Amino acid sequence: MVRSKLSRNRYVPLRGWLSLLAHLGALFPLAWLAWDYWQGNAALWVNPFQEVTLRTGKAALVLLILSLACTPANIVFGWRQALSLRKVLGLYAFFYVCLHFLIFVVDNGLFGNRIELGPILAATFEKRFAYAGFTAFLILLPLALTSTKGWMRRLGRNWKRLHRLVYLAGVLAIVHYSWLVKSDYRQPLLYGFILGLLLLVRLPRIRRPVSQYHLRFKKGRKVEKQVLPS
Fold first, then answer.
1. pTM listed for this prediction
2. What residues form DSSP beta bridges with 115?
3. Which of these, 58, 16, 14, 12, lies nearest to 33 by C-alpha position?
4. I need a surface site. Which of 76, 111, 130, 178 has the fewest CB within 10 A?
């Protein structure tokens, strides 16, 4: 019992540092955007809506994939500390999704001093990339709203079932990105490949043997430490 408490306490400072790095890394795209604007970046002055839309969309996709990588990191490498980053990375991803969507709304619906709904709906449902992105946003919205411990208790087992939809949102986000770029598909394909690997690792037929191999490897390391003289 004492050993288990000590082992848990050893992870507390590490989790604190990981959480700090997650916050700083997640806020870096905004800081970089502000810096480029301050320095007079040409893209931000020539076509600011397009540039900011692209940057916030990429930040959202990267953070979403990182949040989905936390559980596979624990399965494959036994990195339990990564599990504590799932929520914060996922919420930051949703934050950038909201910025991304807000810029789309302003870009397509702002006329004078008011926002008109008609042009926004037309842009959303007439352009397939916008429709895919909007669907991903609608999926992520309830996941973000139910990310608290209170909602976990209220939903019980249904909470996990609901939050599995995050992978569907990830697939739709990559489809959205692929249809948006139209020609150079290298980055969307790379993100899609990474997401596919993360999905494969979570499948029971792959997850079980990988977890068992890691446990055997961990036990072997412990035996070696006990055999080797101090």
1. 0.85
2. 110
3. 58
4. 111
